[in-house]
Design brief:
The chain is about 45% helix and about 15% strand. The chain is of the alpha/beta class. The protein has a six-stranded parallel β-sheet with strand order 3-4-5-6-7-8. Helix 6 links the parallel strand 5 and strand 6.
Length: about 250
């Protein structure tokens, strides 16, 4: 779920156009709470209409460090009883998680205890190590799109992606590739064993009201469908095509 502002005169604005340029903790926390509430409210609206899906929400460092964050999440979930906690995924930046790893681990474990899943966002862009990766109780690793974007022409980026996929399988984490912008990107990722992805090749951001119709008319790319039927994936990983997975996660 990504925030946008429908400006009365300027139209739809991306975050960079309206969020403060400076780091303002108070604003960050208030906005973050609003986003969490709106996401759960939307899930409840969909549930009432017979449509069930998952939503991923980015959690800022200020939110994560705020006293009572987990209690707030718990109370928010109780406000929307038709929403299952398993429908909610929290995304935490790698650099934020490693800033205070003990605190991050405690909060992540508490969120997972509530029934939510936790993802490490922009993985590979920070200073993670095998020790940190083993310690962080994350369900999902999201490969930074900076590596995925140039993987077709930069052998170093491709090697890094291979390494992250191998690490994720070794520590039994799901891995998602951000920035899947072409059919070729998806084919290479599937060949490497990464069968979860997101990006404009699958769908561009859309209003929540359009998602159910988009999913009902969705058709998987033939090349990816062929790849998913022939490629072998580690037995510990459920094999879901890039495009099928992102029908659940294109909520913007």
């Amino acid at each position: 779920a990504l925030i946008r502002w429908q400006h009365p005169k300027r139209g739809l604005l991306p975050p960079a156009e309206f969020l403060p340029k400076k780091d303002i903790p108070e604003f960050d926390i208030v906005l973050g709470k609003w986003v969490l509430n709106q996401a759960l409210k939307q899930l409840a609206t969909w549930a009432a209409a017979g449509f069930r899906t998952n939503v991923s929400i980015n959690i800022s460092g200020h939110q994560l460090e705020q006293q009572g964050f987990v209690e707030y999440l718990s109370a928010l979930l109780q406000r929307y009883p038709t929403v299952q906690p398993s429908q909610f995924e929290l995304e935490i930046l790698e650099t934020v998680a490693l800033k205070d790893i003990d605190n991050a681990c405690s909060i992540m474990n508490a969120c997972r205890h509530l029934g939510m899943s936790v993802a490490i966002d922009d993985f590979g862009a920070g200073y993670s190590s095998l020790i940190y990766l083993k310690k962080l109780p994350a369900d999902i690793l999201k490969i930074d799109q900076a590596f995925v974007r140039d993987m077709l022409k930069d052998p170093a980026d491709l090697a890094i992606i291979k390494g992250i996929i191998g690490l994720s399988q070794a520590v039994h984490r799901k891995v998602i590739a951000e920035g899947v912008e072409s059919e070729a990107h998806g084919l290479v990722l599937l060949d490497l064993g990464c069968d979860l992805g997101q990006g404009y090749c699958i769908a561009k951001p859309m209003p929540a009201s359009e998602l159910p119709t988009w999913i009902s008319h969705y058709s998987q790319l033939p090349a990816w469908a062929n790849a998913t039927s022939t490629n072998k994936v580690a037995a510990s990983q459920p094999h879901i095509s890039l495009s099928k997975f992102w029908t659940k996660r294109v909520i913007k």
